[in-house]
TrEMBL record:
Belongs to the ADP-ribosylglycohydrolase family. Binds 2 magnesium ions per subunit. It comes from the Bacteria. Keywords: Hydrolase, Magnesium, Metal-binding. Gene3D superfamilies: ADP-ribosylation/Crystallin J1 (1.10.4080.10). This is ADP-ribosylation/Crystallin J1, putative. Its cofactor is Mg(2+). The lineage of its organism: Bacteria, Pseudomonadati, Bacteroidota, Cytophagia, Cytophagales. Mg(2+) binds at T45, D46, D47.
Length: 282
C-alpha cells in the first residue's frame, strides 16, 4: 500500500492545482515536470510523509496520545523536510522540536485535508470502535473540526473496507455512510478544492467506478485541483484489495524517489505494517 500511495502522491504532485489544459495534455502515467514550482518528478509530498508518520506509530506500538502523534509528525518532517505542507502546518512544524511544542504552535481549527491524507494506514485496525477512536485522536492534532475528523474517518474506513474485503467497491460509499456522517455515497465530479471532504469524496468516486489502478490514477488527476491527495487516498485504499488489478506502469515504481525514505524504505515499512493485519481464526 505505501508504495502505491506514494506513487499516487508523487504523480499527482505534478498536477496539483495545475491548469486543466496541462492536466489533459500530460496525464499519461509518467512522472514529468508539468509545472516549474512543483516538487521534482518522482518525489512525494506531505501526503506520503504524514502517512509514513502514522504507519511508523502503528508498527512501533507507540501509545496513541496527541503528544506522541504530534511528536512523530515533527520527527518525520525534520529528518526529511518536504514541500507540500500548508503554510499553517509548515510554520508550526518549523517552530517545533517535539510534540508538546507542535500542539502549542498549531491552530487545529481546520477542515482541510491533512488529517485525511495520512489516515490510510489506520484502516488496518480490525476493531471498528478502536479504529474510530484512533483516527479521531490523530485527526484532532491538526484538524479538530467535525469535517476534518469525518474526512479522516472516511479515508481510514475506505482502506479498512479494502483490506478486509468487506464488499464490492460499488458499495463502499454506503458502508462509509453507515459509519460516518457525510455524502460519501454521492458521486463527486467537480474541481477538488482544499477541504478534506472534497478529496475523500473524489477518491471514493474513483474507487467505486474503476477496476484497476492505472485507470484510477488517471481519473484522480482528471478532477483537477488538490489531486495528489485524491490519488494518495484512492491508491492507498485500492492497493489493498484483490478486486482491483495492479497495473500501474513499471516506470512509476522504478522512478519513484530512491532517497533515504524513498522506495526501499516504503517497501520495508509496508511489510511491517502488513503484519498488523488481523487474520481471522479458521
Ligand atoms: Mg500533497
Amino acid at each position: 500500500m505505501l508504495v502505491e500511495l506514494a506513487i499516487g502522491d508523487a504523480y499527482g504532485a505534478q498536477f496539483e492545482f495545475a491548469d486543466p489544459e496541462l492536466v489533459e495534455q500530460h496525464n499519461h502515467l509518467q512522472y514529468i515536470a508539468v509545472r516549474d514550482d512543483a516538487i521534482s518528478p518522482g518525489s512525494y509530498t506531505d501526503d506520503t510523509q504524514q502517512t509514513i508518520a502514522i504507519a511508523e506509530l502503528l508498527v512501533e506500538g507507540t501509545e496513541w496520545t496527541p503528544e506522541n502523534i504530534a511528536g512523530k509528525l515533527v520527527e518525520v518532517y525534520h529528518r526529511d523536510p518536504r514541500k507540500g505542507y500548508s503554510r499553517r502546518v509548515k510554520i508550526a512544524l518549523n517552530a517545533s522540536a517535539n510534540g508538546a511544542e507542535f500542539l502549542k504552535n498549531i491552530d487545529p481549527n481546520s477542515d482541510t485535508s491533512g488529517a485525511a491524507m495520512r489516515a490510510c494506514p489506520l484502516g488496518i485496525i480490525h476493531d471498528l470502535p478502536e479504529l474510530v477512536e484512533r483516527v479521531t485522536i490523530q485527526a484532532k492534532v491538526s484538524h479538530n473540526t467535525p469535517l476534518g475528523i469525518q474526512a479522516s474517518l472516511a479515508t481510514a474506513l475506505a482502506t479498512h473496507y479494502c483490506i478486509y474485503e468487506i464488499g464490492e467497491l460499488s458499495d463502499l460509499g454506503e458502508f462509509i455512510v453507515s459509519q460516518v456522517p457525510g455524502d460519501w455515497n454521492v458521486a463527486y465530479d467537480e474541481f477538488v478544492g482544499q477541504k478534506g471532504w472534497m478529496s475523500v469524496r473524489a477518491a471514493l468516486t474513483v474507487l467505486s467506478k474503476h477496476d484497476n489502478l492505472a485507470d484510477m490514477l488517471k481519473a484522480c488527476i482528471a478532477f483537477t485541483g488538490d489531486v495528489d491527495t485524491v490519488a494518495t487516498i484512492a491508491l492507498g485504499a485500492a492497493s489493498n484489495t484483490a478486486r482491483i488489478e495492479k497495473n500501474l506502469p513499471d516506470c512509476l515504481y522504478q522512478n519513484l524517489e530512491s532517497s533515504n525514505y524513498g522506495l526501499e524504505y516504503l517497501q520495508a515499512l509496508n511489510e511491517r505494517w502488513l503484519e498488523l493485519k488481523v487474520v481471522p481464526n479458521l
